[in-house]
Design a protein that fits this description.
The two termini are 16 Å apart. Strands 1-2 form a two-stranded antiparallel ribbon. It has helices at 6-14, 23-38, and strands at residues 42-48, 58-64. With 68 residues, the protein is α+β, with helices and mostly antiparallel strands.
């Protein structure tokens, strides 16, 4: 397992403001990138978006390492 520098993580997440991607795909992509960077046993990502058009969106995705 590895650690991520908080400032780098912040800039990585802020970079998604410029990416044309749907919310559900953004959550999966962030989880995939973080798992590749950290190699955790398990990880969860929850994205809580601001209300747009009267709809509040929260996207939750999780990763569980398989036993080798």
């Amino acid at each position: 397992m590895k650690l991520l520098e908080l400032k780098s993580l912040k800039y990585y997440l802020l970079s998604y403001r410029q990416v044309g991607i749907v919310q559900e795909h953004a959550a999966n992509r962030i989880l995939k990138d973080l798992v590749a960077a950290c190699r955790p046993h398990r990880m969860a990502v929850s994205l809580d978006y601001k209300t747009r058009g009267g709809i509040h969106t929260t996207v939750d995705v999780a990763y569980q390492a398989t036993e080798v």
